[in-house]
Task: inverse folding
């Protein structure tokens, strides 16, 4: 087939199509590369850096880096697992994440990633930032305490909903998610049915009045670790060649 | 009132054809007219240029020189980088505070003055320095600070400040700056005399491919610090299939301790424009943009006048020097206070009117850069080299310097030395030679390459300044034996925390963690295991960050851990009993004490 590219991930030969990222090609080969900001159907963003792999010995974000013939990719190594754990810990200490009583618990990708990567208590000091909650919208709320700045809502709104509900304001430590209206979410055309309303990996952009509906023990990551769908090949079936 | 603001905004947006990619210019002009850009002004701009409101707010909130809140008519920005601190910036700051009766970050009740801190403004050779609106004031003392405030207060205009103008073009009627060039060594490449148009004429006598070949033969490497071969970059851009190629000059030198581009733009800007025009000819571009850092706004009118002269001389515009079909013109894009915009893809984002977030690579700018167009982006100094290579030949150029690093390099020397300033020297000079030239004594440490470079100690002073040994964008900061290298490193970490764009996790969070722990160690509250923590954390930030800022921001920690290990070891304590040295018991119980209204039995001594 034209455009087919062969390379290796941790010694396993992988075939992909020209134009695919390492993350996409790996998923199609049922190889899980941990990631947070990347989401199938959305443009690659490259902010969380959790999918960092070594490409011919150089660190690269697998969601951004295109595959190339003969590249040697290292993914599941102790060194990379440790770095990813550090990145996850950074996200935990940066915000205010209250797993025990968060309604996203069990369905939260950050929490699930912490478990998968073997994070215990973060080694870093907590920042305990003071962040605003935007509860102005009748059906949605934006809890910035738990936001990890992954831009999945921003991209989903633009790319899937054809709207511009969310954006980033501020720089560095002050960077935060904002709604496209002076008076918050209520002033935007956000709707609970938007694809963006489903995009959040954590408990930051949430629907009102549906929290805790599914009991603990029956939530997505309660029984299987994050990435299982990719490793079992079901993600491949779902993707059907898409990203 | 609201209507007046709306009409002002509409007028400004109209001047830029309601073009959303000119949002930087619109916001700069709005600040000039209105002092700040309020929520209503954001709405008005969004309507005029047809952008979502949040995107206007996103750009507005990114740049240090923009403000959503009203500010004083005169904004005083005192530079607080490490070199300015060493030269008494704190005393000057106290004088400003006392004279104005306000703290940093505040505005006087009469709405006349706002006082702020700002990172390096490119005046380390004449520190302490500050900006008062666009005007630069240097060599400040407490008395001078008071005098300046009084003078602005009395005259109501920065133009009426009593200033002794600097040398060279700093005294030009369109510059009128107190800035001194401090040009200590003139070399044959950058600061040799120039006859306008000579290099361009020679370039146009050759074919575009021959021009690129000359650059390749000269083995010119980019002067911004990374050292990518310029000819190869141009070749990529020339071969790129996209339309409307573009040449961009990175004049956003924000690396703490660097100021050489300031002197180039003051004394040799024609060489820069000439190099850009040659690049346009080489890669097939008709448009050039100079991204000028906001701190150098005082040079804007002067640079614009040079561009105008070049147009009148047929060196810019259509059919340049009579060459049919070769059109090229240059516009200047002013920045607004963001170090990250010196990163080439962040600079392009800024030119597009967006927040200064770096872009994902690939694609690289040569393929798809500004507005998705093939883009050549080079440093100010690199374009100067280009012009000289075409003027004097690639063989002449490559005979200067060393085999891996041809030509000369400009060094911005500051800190503990008698002759701070700009030195143009062939590549391959020893650090010790440069220290001697600058009159540095009792030097304990040299930061080569600015905050993102490396801190070296005396055992490395015999090393040479070139790409294959000590590669540098040119900042050389000298610290004598009285200085505390850990404090210096901490100041650099403060800088990176301030200047991280916040896009990726390791840079946004990791740098704050590094700063916190480094500060503890510097304060004598660290334990031995903190050093391994700093090393590991630093390596993670370096390896996983998205752009050059994060990939180098841990350098102050990593390079001092390497070269000044004893300074760390000396300060860390093995933990007494079962408490971490960083644990401050008294602080931890302070609130409980105040609630209980008694002192702690254990910690309340």
Result:
């Amino acid at each position: 087939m034209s455009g087919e590219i062969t390379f290796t991930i941790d010694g396993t030969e992988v075939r992909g199509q020209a134009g695919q990222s390492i993350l996409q090609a790996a998923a199609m080969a049922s190889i899980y590369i941990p990631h947070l900001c990347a989401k199938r159907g959305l443009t690659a963003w490259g902010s969380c850096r959790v999918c960092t792999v070594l490409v011919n010995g150089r660190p690269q974000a697998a969601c951004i880096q295109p595959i190339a013939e003969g590249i040697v990719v290292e993914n599941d190594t102790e060194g990379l697992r440790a770095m990813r754990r550090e990145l996850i810990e950074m996200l935990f200490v940066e915000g205010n994440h209250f797993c025990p009583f968060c309604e996203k618990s069990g369905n939260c990708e950050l929490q699930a990633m912490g478990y998968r990567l073997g994070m215990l208590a973060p080694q870093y000091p907590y920042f305990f930032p003071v962040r605003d909650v935007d509860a102005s919208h009748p059906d949605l709320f934006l809890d910035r305490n738990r936001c990890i700045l992954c831009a999945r809502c921003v991209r989903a709104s633009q790319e899937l909903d054809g709207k511009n509900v969310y954006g980033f304001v501020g720089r560095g430590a002050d960077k935060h998610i904002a709604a496209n209206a002076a008076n918050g979410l209520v002033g935007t055309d956000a709707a609970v049915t938007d694809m963006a309303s489903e995009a959040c990996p954590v408990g930051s952009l949430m629907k009102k009045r549906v929290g805790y509906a599914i009991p603990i023990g029956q939530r997505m990551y309660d029984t299987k670790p994050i990435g299982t769908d990719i490793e079992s090949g079901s993600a491949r079936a779902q993707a059907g060649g898409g990203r | 009132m609201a209507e007046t603001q709306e009409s002002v905004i509409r007028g400004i947006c109209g001047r830029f054809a309601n073009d959303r990619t000119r949002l930087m210019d619109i916001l700069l002009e709005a600040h000039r007219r209105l002092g700040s850009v309020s929520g209503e002004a954001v709405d008005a701009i969004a309507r005029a240029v047809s952008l979502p409101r949040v995107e206007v707010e996103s750009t507005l909130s990114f740049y240090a020189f923009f403000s959503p809140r009203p500010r004083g008519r005169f904004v005083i920005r005192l530079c607080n980088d490490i070199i300015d601190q060493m030269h008494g910036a704190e005393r000057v700051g106290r004088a400003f505070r006392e004279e104005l009766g306000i703290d940093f970050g505040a505005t006087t009740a009469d709405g006349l003055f706002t006082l702020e801190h700002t990172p390096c403004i490119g005046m380390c050779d004449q520190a302490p320095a500050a900006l008062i609106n666009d005007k630069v004031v240097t060599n400040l003392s407490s008395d001078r600070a008071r005098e300046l405030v009084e003078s602005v207060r009395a005259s109501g205009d920065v133009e009426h400040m009593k200033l002794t103008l600097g040398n060279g073009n700093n005294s030009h009627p369109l510059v009128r700056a107190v800035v001194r060039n401090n040009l200590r060594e003139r070399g044959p490449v950058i600061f040799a005399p120039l006859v306008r148009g000579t290099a361009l004429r020679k370039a146009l006598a050759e074919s575009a491919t021959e021009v690129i070949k000359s650059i390749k033969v000269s083995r010119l490497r980019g002067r911004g610090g990374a050292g990518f071969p310029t000819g190869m970059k141009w070749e990529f851009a020339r071969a790129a299939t996209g339309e409307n190629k573009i040449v961009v000059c990175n004049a956003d030198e924000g690396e703490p301790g660097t100021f050489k581009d300031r002197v180039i733009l003051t004394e040799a800007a024609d060489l820069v424009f000439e190099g850009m025009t040659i690049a346009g000819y080489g890669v097939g571009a008709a448009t050039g943009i100079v991204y000028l850092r906001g701190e150098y706004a005082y040079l804007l009118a002067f640079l614009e006048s040079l561009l105008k002269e070049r147009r009148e001389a047929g060196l810019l515009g259509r059919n340049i020097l009579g060459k049919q079909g070769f059109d090229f013109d240059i516009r200047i894009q002013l920045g607004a206070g963001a170090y990250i915009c010196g990163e080439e893809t962040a600079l392009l984002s800024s030119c597009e009117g967006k927040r200064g977030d770096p872009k994902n690579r690939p694609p690289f700018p040569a393929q798809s850069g500004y507005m998705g167009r093939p883009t050549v982006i080079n440093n100010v100094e690199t374009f100067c080299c280009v012009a000289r290579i075409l003027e004097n030949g690639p063989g002449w150029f490559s005979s200067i310097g060393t085999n891996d690093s041809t030509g000369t390099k400009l060094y911005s020397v500051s800190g503990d030395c008698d002759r701070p300033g700009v030195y143009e020297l062939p590549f391959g000079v020893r650090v010790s030679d440069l220290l001697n030239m600058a009159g540095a004594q009792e030097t304990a440490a040299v930061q080569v390459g600015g905050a993102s470079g490396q801190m070296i100690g005396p055992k490395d002073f015999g090393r040479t300044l070139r790409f294959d040994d000590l590669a540098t964008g040119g900042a050389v900061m000298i610290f004598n034996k009285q200085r505390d290298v850990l404090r210096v490193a901490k100041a650099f970490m403060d800088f990176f925390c301030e200047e991280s764009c916040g896009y990726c996790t390791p840079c946004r969070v990791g740098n704050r963690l590094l700063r916190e722990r480094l500060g503890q160690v510097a304060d004598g509250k660290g334990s031995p295991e903190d050093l391994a923590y700093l090393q590991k954390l630093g390596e993670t930030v370096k390896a996983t960050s998205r752009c050059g800022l994060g990939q180098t921001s841990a350098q102050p920690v990593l390079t001092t851990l390497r070269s000044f290990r004893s300074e760390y070891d000396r300060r860390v304590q093995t933990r007494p009993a079962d408490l971490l040295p960083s644990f401050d018991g008294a602080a931890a119980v302070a609130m409980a004490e105040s609630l209980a209204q008694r002192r702690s039995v254990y910690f309340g001594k």
